[in-house]
Amino acid sequence: MDKLHFDPATALLQSAHDDNQHGVNISVSDSATFTFESGKQMTETFNGEHQAFLYSRHWNPTNLELCKSLAAMEGSEAAWVTGSGMAAITTSILQLCKTGDHIVSSMTTYGGTFAFFKNWLPAMGIEVSFVDISNHDEVEKAIRPNTKVVYTETMTNPLLQISDVPTLAKIAHRHHAQLVIDNTFTPMIFSPIQLGADVVVYSMTKFINGKNDTTAGAICGSNEFINALIDLNNGTAMLLGPVLDTFRASSIHKNLFTLHLRMKQHSSNAMYLAKRFKEVGLKVNYAGCKDHPQHDIMTQTMNKAYGYGGMISIDLGTKEKASDFMAFMQQRGVGYLAVSLGYFKTLFSNSGTSTSSEVPQSIQDKMGLSEGLVRYSVGLDHDIEHTFSIIESCLSDLNLI
Ligand code: PLP
Which pTM was predicted? Predict the structure, then answer.
């Protein structure tokens, strides 16, 4: 597909599977191991001289089909799927960085990623510098001769900052580092590989699967990178073993094909709420609003058909107000007071005390994370005006507007 007109949903649809002559869905491979015709063929497969499935932790037919579809959606050469988003992130990073290496990371990332970078990697002799990813001078200045990775999220969790992927790719490549992008919040909306990223990781637990029935992750990149990950002798995925189960791979594959419709609906509902929240005088953060600091860069780099995404936040000032408000919304049926995102019902949480609680208070203050921040993952509500009227009643009953 022409890079300038890359459309993830069309690319995905064209990725017809070929594992089964008759079934419309991919088959679930129910085998951990696979047979060989001869000892010679087994040896050749282990030596890489013969292509065959040998063991499910490496490859299996179901995961291969899901990976082909994900690679088509991203426009990457290849992909590999994991049992969680954290597995995709940690496996990719440990493949790219060894003791003595250095990473430049956005200061605002998912709390688990932050904790991995801040608390876990230093014990392995890998240092991480945290920067404001929208300040490109700061990013470039933080790069050292041993920097192997520049890491960010296209839309950061929880501040919903937008990363300028083309500019970050240029900076990383100028210094022979790789740009790794977590695109969990914005599948299809952004195609980071098309914008110059080297590796894209996902928590498929979120929008991609969209059902909150499992954790899962994906790594998309070049053939060279994916093959290195599953190298029998020193591939991080092969040796740490975070592979996704085939039953889950098959159910995620089915859900993937409605992702484009879901993303559009999440986005239009979030845009509606953002506008109405502003009208009632709330402090709103939504990338689709013109006053969002990176609205223009998002508009220039996004795939416009899918909207500005389903993630939105409001700031109620204190965590007590946030807590009361979320309890009211849950009682009145707006959605669930729960972490995670990308579900068909609206989910809301107070980021500072939940998904970003791994981030020390001093850094939360530095990155501008208010204690009263309520993060919404806006659902697929059919009547969002009705939803807003319930939210408005919660706000006014608590004297928040
Ligand atoms: N990346 C982002 C942006 C996330 O929000 C999360 C989880 O919330 C993860 C990665 C981790 O994914 P998982 O929970 O599937 O391990």
Answer: 0.96
Domain ranges in the chain are 3-256, 261-397
Cα 69 from Cα 314, distance rounded (Å)? 35
> What separation in angstroms does the CA of 136 have from each of 151, 158, 185, 313, 379?
13, 20, 22, 25, 34
Of 64-78, 174-188, 348-362, which range is least confident? Answer: 348-362
CATH of domain 3-256: 3.40.640.10
pLDDT digits (tens, 9 = 90+) for 273-316: 999 999 999 999 999 999 999 999 999 999 999 999 999 999 99
Helix (H, G, I), strand (E, B) or coil at 97: coil
Residue of the CA atom closest to atom 2 of ligand 1 = 110
Which atom of ligand 1 has the smallest separation from the CA of 157? 3
- Kindly give the distance from the C-alpha atom of residue 85 to the centroid of ligand 1, in angstroms, as a whole number: 5
What is the layout of strands, in order, in the sheet containing 78-82? 78-82, 217-221, 199-203, 178-182, 147-153, 102-106, 127-131
Dihedral of the alpha carbons of 294, 296, 297, 298, in degrees to the nearest 10: 80
| Residue 127 one-letter amino acid | E
Residue 134 pLDDT > 90:
yes
Q: Strand 346-350: give its sheet, edge to edge.
A: 283-285, 311-315, 373-377, 346-350, 335-337
Angle at 170 between CA 167 and CA 171, to 5 degrees: 90
Cis peptide before 145 (omega within 30 of 0): no
* Tokens 């609205």 belong to residue: 295
Domain 3-256 shares a fold with domain 261-397: no
Confidence of residue 351 (pLDDT cuts 50, 70, 90): confident
pLDDT tens across 354-395, in order? 877 777 888 888 777 889 999 999 999 999 999 999 999 999
Q: Tell me which residues have their CB closer than 6 angstroms to ligand 1.
A: 84-86, 110, 112, 153, 157, 182, 184-185, 203, 205, 215, 217, 340, 355
CATH code of 261-397, in short, is: 3.90.1150.10
